[in-house]
Structures are given as C-alpha cells and as structure tokens.
Amino acid sequence: MAEATQMKVSDKVAITIDGMNKWYGSFHVLRDIDLTVYQGERIVICGPSGSGKSTLIRCINALEEHQQGKIEVDGTVLSSDLKNIDKIRSEVGMCFQHFNLFPHLTILENCTLAPIWVRKTPKKEAEETAMHFLEKVKIPEQADKYPGQLSGGQQQRVAIARSLCMKPRIMLFDEPTSALDPEMIKEVLDTMISLAEEGMTMLCVTHEMGFARQVANRVIFMDQGQIVEQNEPEEFFNNPKSDRTQLFLSQILGH
Amino acid sequence: MSDTSNTVAFVRTETIPQMPPPAAETGAIKWMRENLFASIPNAILTLVSAYVIYSILAGVLPWIFNGVWNAQTLAECREILDGTSGACFAVLTERWPQLVFGLSYPASEYWRPSLAFVLLFFAAAPVMFFDLPRKMLIITLFYPFITYWLLWGGTVLIPILAFAGFVAGYLVYQRFVAGSFAAGFFGGVIAAMIVWYIGGFLIPDGANQNAMLRPVASRDMGGFMLNMMLGVTCVSLSIPIGIVLALGRQSSMPLIKWICVVFIEFIRGVPLITLLFVASVMLAYFFPPESSVDLFLRVVIMITMFSAAYIAEVIRGGLAALPKGQYEAADSLGLDYAQAMRLIILPQALKISIPGIVNIAVGLFKDTTLVSVISMFDIVGMIRGPILSSTDWNGVYWELLGFAALLFFVTCYGISQYSQWLERRLATDHR
C-alpha cells in the first residue's frame, strides 16, 4: 500500500508556500512557513490547538489573508487580485469542521450551485455530475432532502461531494471529523481514503492518527505558528525527532 | 415483585405494544375542567371574564345590528332611530366614493383605480407565492407602468418612456456588469437618464389634453386609495433599498460603509412627521426652481427613505445571525460577492428577517395616514376634514373611525397571516 501510494506522487508542484508570515493584529500566528506540496501528495497536518494549522490551510484558498511571503497554487500566484483568488478557489476544494452546507438548499442544489454559477455548466450536466459524486460518497438517496434532515456524518460526506463537483485539483480538509460522533467518523474517513486512493492532492488538518498512518505520505507537526517537524508517517510516529513532537504524540496516543 | 429485581441481568425479548391513553384524558368536559375550572380562583376568573365579554357584546351588538344604512344626514338618521341605540352607517354608504377615492377624483373615472386595485392582486401573486408559474412575473414587471397610466391618466407616452428608460438601463447594465458591478450599475443609471432626458423632448406639448385617459392630478387623489398607493409603492421600494443599505453598511469599503451608516442613523433619528413636513414644505428648495416635483412623489421619497432605514437595520440583524461558515463555504466554492450574496447569504438572512420586515411594512402602511397632517386627503384626512366638518354628518365619529380601523385591521392582519405562512413555507432547517 505504502509503495503503491508513493508511486502516484509526481514531481509536479501543486502548492508552493515561500516565507509566509501572518499576523492577527500584533499576534504572529504563522511564522516563516515554507512548504512545497507535489501533485498527488497527501499531507496530514497536526499539532496542538492554536498552533496555526487551520490558519495555514485557510491561507491557501485565501479565506485568510497573509501579510508576507508568496503562495502559489497550481501556477497561480495568490495576490489581492480578486480574479486570481476566485480562480484558485474554484480549483481548490475545502471541507470544514462544521460542514457549512447551505441549509436553505437541497442536497442536490448544494452540489450543483457552484458548477452552475461559477463553471457555467448546464443544469442537467451539473445534476448528473452531482449524482455521480453523491453515489461516490454513498448517499444518492438523500439528494432531495435538506441538510438539516441528515446526520453529521452524512452532512460531511455531502460537503465532500459538493467540493468534488467543482472537479478540484487540490482538496483541503479542516478538521473534518472533529464535530462528529465516533460512529460517524469512520464513514467520513472511508470517503477520504477512497479519495486518496484516486490520487487527489490532499491537505488534511486532523487528529485522526490512524488515518494519517494509513493514507498520508507526509505528516507535518506544527506548534506556535511554525512547522516543527515533517516526515513520512512511519518515521514520524515511531521515531519523532523533536521533544515537542514526542510530547504531543505521547499525549494523543497515550490513552 | 417480579423476578427481574432479584438479579442484575435482564434481557427484553419483546417490545411493549402501543396503547391508547385512558378515556378520562380526552373530551370536552375534561378540557373545560382543566382549562376553565381547574381551581377556585381559576373558576372565579373565568366567570368574571365571561361577564366582561357579555357586557361588551351586549352593548355593541345591538348598536351594530340596529344600524341605519340609508339616510342622507345625521338628523335623518336620528329620526329613523327614534331614540333607540344604533349606529348610523348611512354615512358610509352616502360618502362611500369619498372614503375610497377622495374628494375630487372624477366619478366617471372610478373604474381606473378599481381596475388597478384588481390588477394589484395579479401583480403581487407571483412575488408572494413562488409556486405560481414564473411567467406571471411579466404582469408584475408591467404593473407599475400600467397603474401609473390608469391612476394619473394623460398621455400613454410617459409610462412608455419610463419603461424604455428602465429597459435601456438594464441592457447597459447587462453589457458592463461582467467587467465590474460599479461600471454596470452607473452605466445603467446614466443610460436610463439619457433616454428619459431625450424622450422628454419627444413628447408633444399638448399630449395630455387629447389623451385617451383623462389626466387626473395628484392633489385630486385621496381616500383609502391614497393609503394603498403610498403603502404599496413605499413597501415595494423600501425593501430593495433596505437590502442595499444593509449590505452597504457591512461593506469593507469605508466610504460606502460610512454613507450608509450616516444615512441610516440620521433617518432613524428623525420623526416621520418631520420628514413629511420637509416633503410638503421644504423639499422644493432642493430641486431646481422651475421644476415642480409632485407632492405625492415627494411624500413617497420621504416615507421610502424612512422605512428603508428601518428595514436595513432588520436585515443587518439577519445578516449578523448567519454563521461565518456560510460566507466561507460560499467563498471556498469560488462564488463571487454578488453570487454569494444573492444565492447563499440573502435568501437565508431575509428568511430570518421576515417577521421584522413585515412588522415595518405593517407600521409603514398605517403610517400613511400621517399624510393627513400635511393636508393630503387620505382616508383619515377625508374623515377629519370634508366629512366630519360637513353640516350633514357632523358628529359621526364612531362609525367613520371604526370603519377606517376595520379597513386597516383587515389589510394588516392579512399581511401578518401571509408572513406566518411564508415562514412555515420557507422552513427547511428542521431544527
């Protein structure tokens, strides 16, 4: 498995982050972030709360502004130009901790909205694509319901399908399982694993270390706004180098 | 003692079937005992309330049913009643056209506002009930122009010119909006202005005199018709303006934001009566000396500004109630600002704001009676002025004001019922 996944990682660059710094007011949240993500790579970002991991991936699709440094996504440099931002956002899918489905639209409408309005796909074609991805996340029968009628796990899978309908080249996951009951975490992780097996470039902020071991080809540990350690999952979990990483791992794996 | 209490282990093998509730828990007598005579104080309150309701009805009902519907003057009415208690509804029948259309709307033209009133239902229906076919919106689109022509009469060229201006503005907007919203918007406004300016010269001078519909001046309009005209116009104008103000107040562009904040705070801080006096007396100073802006239009501008400021604040509350995640989800899918607002944010924010908006709409509709203070003869103005001061009907307060109250109550209660239906219809969050 590990070898097979290694094979798919190309040497083409998907995301480059170069000397990025970000402040909230005078608080320095992200410090000198350098990160290169290759196409097909699956990166898990972990770290204690407040370490800036969510902020980091939210900078990639410009939900947060960065003040210094360069972010380049799929050849497009992220600047304050709204056209560039919208282009990057339509290429980068994102899943949130609280799903953020649109409660006034049905599941199908949630999935077809962006393709119809941003990509200008004809409605019929968008609906076919949406049904395809809803089948892929295994809830085609819920298409006509509203998000409020679904369980948390189902909602998160719809959120994944909604992002996939835009045919993104990169997927960002911001703690996708943190708001879910234990029974529902597995169904969401299974969806993410099948996505990974198809070679999607993924950046996941998560505390699911089993998922990291199984799927990731790189694990990044952040603390106090810096990348403290990054390594392949085997090395990272079995042989962490920094003291901070060792402490973190002992705390989350210790029970 | 069952044997389950002796041991800890217990396994249920079959589900207990559902049973109907005991017979004593249902029925009308049960309901009365629980709700009307639950305890001694409760029973006393019930009896006292029943007595109060009885005395009110015993006084009012004979007065209503004994009412006189046919008489020419109050004196004649009293003669018919001959000392018994009874209402003099004859004033309503005798002065009906004045109550509805005002003092000097030509009687031969009453069919025009009546037709406009009937058409109003067809124009409002597709906006209010969105299950109706969308093609009906065409009626809504043409309704303002048709109604203008019906009510004011005169040459048909004016509403056609107004419509042409809007079409030109829309076409220019469509052409440029892809570049930037501001270019589209201001381009559209300028195009409409140009069409109206040029068109103004094209309308021949005597067009109003030999027009198909006899022209009627604004000052000749009155009665409940005037309240309806003001209410419908101002509500339908102030909701879109309120939305724009609410979005503007949230804008990240400081200039736009401050214009909206100053406008809203200023208008909210001034009584409507003051604004109406400004409209009737002082607004003329703001227009070029030779132009005479119609009093009706000036009042519409003031009431619209007033209620738009309030509606903006209600909608701002709705916007603030939306979780930040909705904005982020819309952004992360690549929707631009206009799309995110139109498709994601506003539908939800407006849904939350429905009770507040309806509250303001109902208040606005009732406030249209304030124009009687600046000597416009709306229904209250008609009652206070021409009818009560006439020698024939001097002193019939209850019947006239009760009728006005009833008209407003029926309309406002209808609006309120509609809004409750709308809330139920839009409830998709299944909380």
From TrEMBL, chain A:
It comes from the Bacteria. Gene3D superfamilies: P-loop containing nucleotide triphosphate hydrolases (3.40.50.300). One of its GO terms (molecular function) is ABC-type amino acid transporter activity. Residues 15-249 form the ABC transporter domain. Keywords: ATP-binding, Nucleotide-binding, Transport. Belongs to the ABC transporter superfamily. This is L-glutamine ABC transporter ATP-binding protein /L-glutamate ABC transporter ATP-binding protein /L-aspartate ABC transporter ATP-binding protein /L-asparagine ABC transporter ATP-binding protein. It comes from Yoonia maricola.
UniProtKB/TrEMBL annotation, chain B:
The keyword Lipid metabolism does not apply. One of its GO terms (cellular component) is ATP-binding cassette (ABC) transporter complex. Keywords: Cell membrane, Membrane, Transmembrane, Transmembrane helix, Transport. The keyword Chaperone does not apply. It is found in: Cell inner membrane; Cell membrane. It is a multi-pass membrane protein. It comes from the Bacteria. The lineage of its organism: Bacteria, Pseudomonadati, Pseudomonadota, Alphaproteobacteria, Rhodobacterales. It comes from Yoonia maricola. This is L-glutamine ABC transporter membrane protein /L-glutamate ABC transporter membrane protein /L-aspartate ABC transporter membrane protein /L-asparagine ABC transporter membrane protein. Gene3D superfamilies: MetI-like.
